[in-house]
Amino acid sequence: MTNQYDKDYIELLKDVKNNGYRKKNRTDIDTISSFSKSLRIDLTEGFPILTTKKVFFRGVFEEMLFFLKGETNTNLLSEKGVNYWKGNTSREFLDSRGLTFLPEGEIGCGYGHQFRNFGGEHPLVPQTKGLKGVDQLSEVVQKIKTNPWDRRIIISLWCPTQLDLMALPPCHLYTQFYCNPEKKELSCFLLMRSSDLFLGLPTNIIQYALLTHFIAKITGYTPKELFYTSVDSHLYTNHLEQVDIQVERESFKLPEFIIKKEVKTLDDILSLSYEDVELKNYQFHPAIKAEMAV
Questions:
Q1: Residue 192 backbone dihedrals phi, psi, to 5 degrees
Q2: In a domain, 251, yes or no
Q3: Residues facing 175 on adjacent strands
Q4: Spatial CB neighbours of 148, under 8 Å, sequence gap ≥ 6
Q5: What is the extent of the structural domain holding 237?
Q6: Is residue 104 a part of any domain in this protein?
Q7: What gap in Å lies between CA 245 and CA 57, rounded to an integer?
Q8: Among the options 109, 159, 171, 179, which is catalytic?
Q9: CATH number, domain containing residue 49
Q10: How far apart are CA 259 and CA 279, in angstroms?
Q11: Which of 68, 100, 145, 186 is most buried, by the most CB atoms less than 10 A from its CB?
């Protein structure tokens, strides 16, 4: 393997496939599941996007910016050709969750809402009227700028009082940043309650690598490490043939992530378009198609 990230990811796939156990879940497709798996990723080696299969980077970029802006209407993503949320915000799915008051395509009090207005009022959710929320993203940026020694530089997306008011409870639920002010290095810890290793994990790693790069850029730091861990680490049984294909591939060197536009503030980051960023020298094997369980 040319890069450590692909190597460690491939070993994770093989470990869970060979040593996990068959487990039922909320979908109609069983998983092969293992308890608590982790990856430590060196962000100085390059940007952690898999090279053993092509990953839809534009889609992941657009979704992460969508979350960071506090957006919850996924029709905004669909208009850009990003359809990750189609199944989980369909009329049928929302109604099955008791969210009959939400229009189709709406997440409700999910990811973006909790990033920017944790526990607060959502204009489309009557049960939240009058609630005051917390802009966690802005607080994190401010803490890194003013008190980088703080051990509470945290974003939590798990809001127990609003779990029944969102299309899907968050899978990536806890993020903590670790600063080294002397070396001006910024690292990120990501905890997931549940991780679809073949489809979900590669995108989640990209999302939080992007977040680390974004925050580092506007606070004067350099991205250092991303540490990922998930409690229920699983492969869907309809992805096992695809896993067998991927684990036989050799990787390429990781690309470099570049923000081509000058950014100094959080608002500058949120105003970025896909044309303002670049994955330099991204080499990859062909995509491996797989169906997402809904």
A1: -120, 135
A2: yes
A3: 155, 190
A4: 179, 181
A5: 4-56+135-280
A6: no
A7: 21
A8: 171
A9: 3.30.572.10
A10: 9
A11: 186
Which of 92, 181, 76 has its CA nearest to residue 84?
76
Cβ atoms of 36 and 15 closer than 8 Å: no
233 within some domain: yes
Structure tokens at 223: 């991205």
For 241-286, what is each residue's pLDDT tens digit? 999 999 999 999 999 999 999 999 999 999 999 999 999 999 999 9
Residue 95 lies in a domain: no
> How many domains does the chain fold into?
1
Instruction: Compute the distance between CA of residue 62 and CA of residue 57 in angstroms, rounded to an integer.
Output: 9
Residues 207-232 have pLDDT tens digits of 999 999 999 999 999 999 999 999 99
CA-CA distance, 253 to 47, in Å (whole number)?
Answer: 10
Number of helices followed by number of strands (H, E) in the chain: 9, 8
For the chain, report the end-to-end CA distance as a whole number of angstroms: 33
Residue 68, phi then psi, degrees to nearest 5: -65, -25
Whether 179 sits among the annotated catalytic residues: the reply is no
Task: Provide the 10 A C-beta neighbour count for residue 178.
Answer: 15
Tokens representing 243 are: 């896993």
The amino acid occupying position 58 is R
Q: Is 21 exposed, middle or buried (0-12, 13-18, 19+ CB in 10 A)?
A: exposed
Q: Is the Cα torsion angle 10, 12, 8, 218 positive or negative in sign?
A: positive
Task: Enter the pTM of the model.
Answer: 0.96
222 near 185, Cβ under 8 Å?
Answer: yes
